[in-house]
């Protein structure tokens, strides 16, 4: 049996295994050029082909280039502090949105709107695109925007009781295998509080203080 015959007897696994081994030996700069012609989903699929490719494609530089070349609707970035896993997550969501709502299509029809009235000193933040965290005075409450009766979905998450008005509220959250992980930052006049938002059956129920800064004393120099 000659060399040509031996090649014909290779199993499919052996054939693609050798192809994959050749791909893993590509220099990183060449891999970057190759990645420029792949979609986000294709890059993710490639990273699962082997442990070596997963390691090579864990380089944030690959995903930063992908972030800048796509025409998707994306938050500001990429930044040096954003990890590869974070960029991949944002890009996958943006690509999914683009697939169902391409930029060439018209704006979606607004089927209905809802309105709520608040005082002029209210500050708010939207958590995970669903829950509306509203700070009015020294109280932080939560509304569920998916409820048809939004005003009746109100829950009190925090009440300072010290008559310290909350100037701003910020929130961040993610959904993983272990459920929802969410945090809020409450900014007061002379300090701030970082709190974990505790969930009950998938909905915010209260907050647990993680860190409270010392009072910030502002004085005159000289």
Number of domains: 2
For the biggest β-sheet, the strand order reads: 1-2-3-4
The helix/strand class is alpha+beta
What would you report as the Rg, rounded to the nearest angstrom?
Answer: 25 Å
Low-confidence stretches: 1-17
Helix amount:
25-40%
What's the total number of strands? 8
> H/E order of the elements?
HHHHHHHEEEEEEEE
Overall geometric form: elongated
Major sheet details = 4 strands, antiparallel
Question: What is the count of DSSP helices, taking H or I runs of 4+ residues?
Answer: 7
End-to-end gap: 95 Å
Percentage of residues in strands: 25-35%
- Average pLDDT, rounded to a whole number, is 78
Question: Layout of helices and strands, plus pairs?
Answer:
Elements: H1 3-8, H2 12-24, H3 28-35, H4 40-47, H5 51-56, H6 60-69, H7 84-100, E1 123-127, E2 131-136, E3 139-144, E4 155-159, E5 168-176, E6 179-187, E7 192-200, E8 203-212
Antiparallel strand pairs: 1-2, 2-3, 3-4, 5-6, 6-7, 7-8
Helix pairs in contact: 6-7
What does this structure look like?
The chain is α+β, with helices and mostly antiparallel strands and 222 residues long. The chain has two domains: 14-100, Monooxygenase (Up-down Bundle), CATH 1.20.1280; 123-212. It is 31% helix and 27% strand. A four-stranded antiparallel β-sheet has the order 1-2-3-4, with no helix packed on it. A hairpin with a 2-residue loop joins strand 2 (131-136) and strand 3 (139-144). The model is unreliable at 1-17 (pLDDT under 50).
